[in-house]
Amino acid sequence: MDITINEDYMLTILKALYGEFISAKQYFENHKNSRDKIGLISPKEYKEVYNNLLKQSHEQGELLELNLIDS
Fold first, then answer.
1. What is the Cα–Cα distance from 25 to 64, expressed in whole angstroms?
2. How far apart are CA 67 and CA 15, in angstroms?
3. At a CB cut-off of 8 Å and minimum separation 6, what does 58 contact?
4. Is 21 in contact with 41 (CB distance < 8 Å)?
5. For residue 2, what pLDDT is reported?
């Protein structure tokens, strides 16, 4: 699917995804019981979406100063 998003909007989306990634990571670290995680988006899923969008931006020569999420 091709969606055209300007660089400013992409940066906003990436910031939101990164913030949610950090929050989810902390929540999942503090709540080991799988019942506490039912229906939640995992840090891995946030990371995958963030990295996918950022890779596409990099391929277009945009947001090159941002790094992929490693952890």
1. 25
2. 12
3. 64
4. no
5. 79
Question: How far, in Å, are 4, 14, 23, 40, 49 from residue 20 at the CA level?
Answer: 23, 10, 5, 11, 11
What pLDDT shows up at residue 1? 77
The owner of tokens 């091709």 is: 2
Give whole-number Cα distances, 10 to 13, 32, 34, 45, 60, in Å. 5, 33, 33, 18, 12
Q: How far apart are CA 44 and CA 12, in angstroms?
A: 20
The mean pLDDT of 53-71, rounded to a whole number, is 95
Query: Assign residue 16 a region: left if phi > 0, alpha if psi is -120 to 50, beta otherwise?
Result: alpha
Radius of gyration for the alpha carbons in the chain, expressed in angstroms and rounded: 14
